[in-house]
Write a structure and sequence with these properties.
Low-confidence stretches: 1-11, 86-92
Structural class: alpha+beta
Strand content: 15-25%
Order of helices and strands: EEEHHEEEEHEHHEHEHEEEH
Largest sheet: 4 strands, mixed
Mean pLDDT: 89
Shape: globular
Amino acid sequence: MTVGLLSFASVPIVSPFVLNLSFDASAQAAPQSFRDTCNAAAAALMAVITDPITMNIIVGYNETPDGLGGSVATNLGAGARSSDLGETTGGINQTSYTTIRAALSAKASRSANSTSLLNSLPNTSSLNGSSNFYLPRGLGKALGLIAANDPALDGSSGIGSSVPAANLLGVCIHEFTHAMGREHGSAPFDFCRFLSPPPGARNFGAGSTSPAQYFSVDGGATSLVSLATSSDPGDFAATNGDIFQALYAPGVTQNPLSAVDLKVLDAIGFTVLGVV
């Protein structure tokens, strides 16, 4: 089994989860500090996710690579943009609700958080009238539906060249988790999106804006966190410096991955340390 070897304060950490970054020509020409920060962001995620899989993400500097030698976004400036492979190449990976629910069921015992989500999902052929959902490649690996070490690209991330140094690590973690599958308009993330106020109806909207909404693992009964209504409805509406909030405050260092961040990653299919 391939493992990722990390080092924090000279203490080696072995992770069964490998976030394998490759850098396109723009990122290879960027300052070394950019690549170092990208690798530090990957290390932070490898330290908390324990699924024995290898996820492959290509990174661009001031552009979002398309995985085919071109780009889907350029001149990002102080912004950033990510997508999983299916979005990047224009492909659609539709997976049946029954297949995704069965895969979540096989892993549900890893935490009460994930068990709660499973219990909120009816054992039927569809969810709210939808029988097929877009499933990002990375989550396909985490759920055992794609070979754990499949070498194909799973996603891409572009980080703007004007992102302040104080924000760069947080922005990288934020974007990499998008490329890994933390995105609205896809499963299992949309299984947890509901229209405010609780208890609300599920929200499967895939557009760039959304009505007031929240993330819930108990069928919408309670809100774990409010979600953004613009910029990216797959992000948090918070303004407290959380890494997953929609907009960062330039020059203000974001907080480390929070307990809520970890619960979200756990709910969508990853095995995450510290989530019970």
